[in-house]
Amino acid sequence: MERRAPTPPDDPDRTDPLRRLSLEELRRRTSIKWRTHPADVLPLWVAEMDVPLAAPVVRAITDAVGLGDTGYPAGTAYAEALAGFARRRWGWQGLAVPRTMIVPDVMLGIVEVLKVVTRAGDPVIVNCPVYPPFYPFVAHMDRRVVEAPLGPDLRIDLAALEGAFRQAATGGARAAYLLCSPHNPTGTVHSAEELAAVAALADRYGVRVVADEIHAPVVAPGTAFVPYLSVPGAESGLSLMSATKAWNLAGVKAALAVAGPAAADDLARVPEEVGHGPSHLGVIAHTAALRDGGGWLDALCAGLDDNRRLLAELLAEQLPAVRYRPAPGTCLAWLDCRRLGLGDDPAAAFLARGRVALSPGPDFGTGGAGHVRLNLATSPEVLTEAVRRMAATPT
Question: CA-CA to 208 of 20 to 30 Å: which in 10, 42, 162, 373?
Fold first, then answer.
């Protein structure tokens, strides 16, 4: 298990970052991933990645610290870097810097945007199973969650979504749809056709779309991510984006709220003091990642795709009762463990008996029982050992 990475070539940012750190090095980290469980547990739960930082990010942070540049954030460099990234990666020319706002992180940005477009007691639709914090964050701001379950293919079920929109829009409610794109935990990357259909339904029922696109850069080679605001009919939508997930920057917080052309006035109503929350070092790091971290990202996405194939092979060999559909988005895998007989929360058994920490399926809402979420952003060796331990878990 303890191993040393091979000597990297002249450009380490072009090599798979998932293969560059040993387990011994990773266990020196003090973040939640590595401090929640005892040292004998393999942590494959929270969406932190087992990678070194991209060199441009390291340089940017180091230079800022060397200058003592640790004050308050200012300017539009982050938004300009995101707009440039969107043009290069997604062919999207429509990210207008004046229609952006820096926010502390994606979830807090979602909360502030929802406060503007909905009122206390209004419904917020989600596609379950979905990122667990959607539920408490919405409830804490006195809105109510309405679930529109994904279809059997783990894609948006437009009929279920329309039913939820119809229900939510009754009685004068100002409903919102919190779209997770790419979807967490399934890794589904929504197509342009699906997103255009969502926009048409939202317009028909007067539902405001707020898109969580934090995983947008993390897609398999050859897969096209489609920004929600780029599709026809999405002009009144709002999006939250950041470099957090793609470059492993959760500890240096910063994100951007992006408004469609018809939502600029809504974004302008978000209180100015919300923009005081982001870290200046976070803004610097995210800007460097988006502007100069493309090579590192390419290597990461290729490595994640290798791990998707490896996980599918390992499960087929050692845990054939587990159903897994490799999907091209995020660094996450959604595993259906219901045929193992481990109850609604198989993650508890894998942790207690196999010493592997996974995210419990029930936390993701309706459709999560009997499932686990596994973080693929680790080395092939750790992934192989994790499946070996899972397969040895007695039922």
Answer: 373
Kindly give, in sequence order, each residue whose CB lies less than 8 Å from that of residue 128, ignoring residues fewer than 6 positions away.
Answer: 147, 148, 149, 150, 364, 365, 366, 367, 368
Tokens of 162: 């329309």
Q: Which two tokens stand for residue 250?
A: 């959760």
The C-alpha angle 259, 262, 266, rounded to 5 degrees, equals 60
CB-count burial class (<10 Å; 0-12, 13-18, 19+) for 262: exposed
Q: CA-to-CA distance for 300 and 338, rounded, in angstroms?
A: 31
Q: Which residue has the tokens 């070996």?
A: 388
- Report the largest interatomic distance among the alpha carbons of the chain, rounded to a whole angstrom: 64
Query: What separation in angstroms does the CA of 291 have from each of 24, 37, 134, 238?
Result: 31, 35, 29, 23
Taking a C-beta distance cutoff of 8 angstroms, is the pair 219, 182 a contact?
yes
- Tell me phi and psi for residue 175, to 5 degrees: -80, 150
pLDDT value of residue 170: 85
d(CA 141, CA 273): 18
Q: Distance from CA of residue 188 to its chain's centroid? A: 11
- pTM of the entire predicted model: 0.95
- Residue 151: DSSP 8-state: P
Question: CA-to-CA distance for 373 and 365, rounded, in angstroms?
Answer: 13
C-alpha–C-alpha distance, residues 90 and 216, integer Å: 10
Please give the helix or strand (H or E) that residue 81 lies within, else none.
helix 77-90
* DSSP reduced 3-state for 321: coil
- Token code pair at residue 114: 């929802």
pLDDT in tens, 351-391: 999 999 999 999 999 999 999 999 999 999 999 999 999 99
Report DSSP letters for 230-255, one per residue.
GSTT-TT-EEEE-SHHHHT-TTS--E
CB 102 within 8 A of CB 111: no
Strand locations in 233-362 (E): 238-241, 255-259, 323-324, 332-336, 356-357, 359-360
Model confidence pLDDT, tens digit, residues 7-21 = 333 356 679 999 999
Give the model confidence (pLDDT) of 310-336 as tens digits: 999 999 999 999 999 999 999 999 999
- Residue of 213, 232, 198 lying closest to 110 (CA atoms): 213
What is the rounded CA–CA span in Å between residue 282 and residue 254?
Answer: 5
